[in-house]
């Protein structure tokens, strides 16, 4: 029998509620609104910058590696999710191969008496204000900041595209 974790279920519910409120305009957690924030609703701080050529989204994801981040463009919204799994050991011994982790001199073993880590997951769905070129979208991750560049669709693309019939 699988054991259920009620706290995880509550966090998942609050995350879904936060995403729904965000899709409605994100007005419930405005500064000085007097409404408490929902956990998970704003786990990822973002900036959305628009110029004549593109829309750029900057997302703060400190502590994650690039391979732990998923970015998806769907239904005129950008979804960003990051998950990091960490171990939880009561006691562990780290040898010379892992010396950089805890033994600066690298001349022996390090013994952890307690090593507590957990799973960390964050996500955010950001509505994109203008039509963008899906094929030209790029993403980079540097120093804890994800940068997603979304080139705007040209006005001629919005009018339609002629297809030759053979």
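Q: What amino acid sequence fits the structure above?
A:
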């Amino acid at each position: 029998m699988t054991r259920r974790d009620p706290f995880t279920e509550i966090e998942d519910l609050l995350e879904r509620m936060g995403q729904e409120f965000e899709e409605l305009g994100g007005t419930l957690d405005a500064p000085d609104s007097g409404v408490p924030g929902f956990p998970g609703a704003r786990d990822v701080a973002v900036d959305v910058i628009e110029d004549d050529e593109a829309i750029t989204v900057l997302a703060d994801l400190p502590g994650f590696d690039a391979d732990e981040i998923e970015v998806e463009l769907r239904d005129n919204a950008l979804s960003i999710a990051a998950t990091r799994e960490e171990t939880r050991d009561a006691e562990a011994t780290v040898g010379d191969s892992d010396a950089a982790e805890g033994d600066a001199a690298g001349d022996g073993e390090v013994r952890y008496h307690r090593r507590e880590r957990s799973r960390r997951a964050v996500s955010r769905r950001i509505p994109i204000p203008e039509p963008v070129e899906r094929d030209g979208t790029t993403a980079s991750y540097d120093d804890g900041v994800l940068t997603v560049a979304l080139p705007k669709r040209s006005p001629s693309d919005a009018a339609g595209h002629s297809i030759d019939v053979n």
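Q: And what stands out in the fold?
A: The first helix runs from residue 6 to 23.
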